[in-house]
Design goal:
The complex is a heterodimer of chains A (332) and B (327).
Chain A (H helix, E strand, L loop, with lengths): L1 H7 L3 E16 L4 E17 L3 E5 L6 H8 L7 E6 L2 E2 L5 H7 L3 E4 L13 H11 L5 H14 L16 H13 L5 E5 L7 H18 L2 E6 L2 H7 L2 E6 L2 E7 H6 L4 H9 L39 H5 L5 E4 L2 E3 L8
Parallel strand pairs in A: 3-8, 3-9, 6-7, 7-8
Antiparallel strand pairs in A: 1-2, 1-4, 4-5, 9-10, 10-12, 11-12
Helix pairs in contact in A: 4-5, 4-6, 5-6, 6-7
Chain B lengths: L5 E12 L2 E13 L4 E5 L6 H8 L7 E10 L2 E2 L5 H7 L4 E4 L13 H13 L3 H14 L5 H4 L9 H13 L5 E5 L7 H18 L2 E6 L2 H7 L2 E6 L2 E7 H6 L4 H8 L39 H5 L5 E4 L2 E3 L3 E2 L4 E2 L1
Helix pairs in contact in B: 3-4, 3-6, 4-6
The chains are: A alpha/beta (332), B alpha/beta (327).
Amino acid sequence: MMNTTAAANRRPLIQVKDLKKHFPITRGLFNQTVGTVRAVDGIDLEVYEGETLGIVGESGCGKSTTGQMLLGLLPPSEGSVIFEGKDLTSLSKEELRLRRKDLQVIFQDPYSSLNPRMTIEQLVGEPLKIYGLKKGKALRDEVVRLLRVVGLDEHHLKRHPHEFSGGQRQRIGIARALALNPKVLICDEPVSALDVSIQAQILNLLKKLQREFNLTYVFIAHGLPAVRHISDRIAVMYLGKVVEITDRDSLFESPTHPYTEALLSAIPVADPTKRRTHKPLEGDLPNPSNPPSGCRFHTRCPYAQERCVKEEPSLVEYKPGHHAACHYPLGM
Amino acid sequence: MSTSLLNVEDLKVRFKTEDGIVPSVNGVTFHVDKGETVAIVGESGCGKSITSLSILDLIPSPGEIHHGRIDFNGTDLQAIKKKQLRKLRGNEISMIFQEPMTSLNPVFTIGNQISESIRLHQRLGKKKALMKSIEMLDRVGIPDAEAVVRRFPHQLSGGMRQRVMIAMALACNPKLLIADEPTTALDVTIQAQILELIKQLKTDFDTGVILITHDLGVVAEVADRVVVMYAGEVVEEAPVEELFANPKHPYTLGLLSSVPKAEHVVDELGTIEGNVPNPADMPEGCKFHPRCPFATDKCRNEHPELEQFDSNHKKRCFYDVEKGGVA
């Protein structure tokens, strides 16, 4: 499906080059900087038109920070985000505001991302009003159209967010994101806060909308099965770095990076006949303000060797379209 | 039935609110044997957490058990005095909560908190209790346990805190462990570590476990038997292999088909249309009928009973999945 079409017109819509975000750690009365958290530490990514790029990783790996930089909501410390040939980091505030029409976001928590005092009509119409695109009856008609697109309808117009369930609120969030007819939707954990039966409804809706409006998705999540379900390509992040990036089937069937392998083996399989004994990853995520030397994964990697401690591996294309940052990639 | 560790019979819990009486759990019956892991599965608001809290008589204030019987190891937990129940809590029955940050006390050290229950229930001295705490932390796979007992909760990561909770819960070798969404707040790699630990308990201590979760992957991984709850009722119960191979209730069917699989990709996920009903405004007849693709007039008017149709499989539904029709 999307795989082939995305491959046919390999036109990167978004290009991320050596993107970094370092947060200073401050202490004491005069807020002296005592260290830096390297939340994102030099990543390169391409997002092609019409595809879904999944970004997975554990909490603290920098996936959400990456998403915010793609949206221009967070200025990067270094590097660039090129969207349709323009570097978002070099734009003025006003230029960025206009660009953002094409880059919209769906947040994780549908409870805190909608203003409780606004009606659904106001919420969904707000982006159109801000950009001065529609008003009066035209605005209202457009809001109704958007609500229908996400499976709600006009009798929801005058209600407030608290009258809706989590799944419905997420639909409202999606309608709001679609209001400006964007090219790219950044979905930051859009289903993690929802019940399983509702997750499926939202995932199906996102797929349907992508087909209808030729949307490009960046789907950030920690739930691997959901990411596999929706993505064409998947990037795996660990401690602020992309460690592997490839199409979804190669990632799940022949992971090259030991961290990807560990992540996959940790997913509980919803089939009791396939119960296996995990080799769980030892230890916890290292502190991102003081990442390990060499390969950042070496402290937890079952295959680590001397070289991994000293030398940082770069992201290498081992097979066409399959990149991994590992000195001793699996199955090579 | 006398061999089971825990017997819950026709448990009913209701909340008295300003808007009237809201039923939360409506006649739940299940049992847990020694060394058995029973998973209670369901979506938010189905009453799974309230069921587990009522075992320890920990239901939050406007709630009350107004019907049913809970037998633990031959004692009726509702008939005994508060003092006796306190002797069981944290000793023979322990609980792990979902959020390891809020369930640990931030102003006491880890060692202090684990020792508390050991000193209380096993009447050990301070030093011995601390030694035991270190031993427990070691057992749950915390490296450098002797240093960790002196730390405070905020100095530990989420996975470590959850392991501390488990160490605390296991300190007195409980016969029954109630784990309420023990891994929901954790990353997959840490989740795998915790699930391994729970599996080990069964073999090492013959502990009975009630695992409350909404994650069917976790269920398939660790449970022996599964109780599926919907809107305050048990709708299906079966051994784990049987439930995944032959789900009989349309709700279970829906849940299973709505889970994205890591092994293969389907074009479209199965869904359960609509939303979980509001407990204050339950539908007539079968509570699942507004969302059920097979619902008939009978389902809309009559309330199905939980029927045992096989030696180990129960369901609350008129519909016959195999024959395709309402009995």
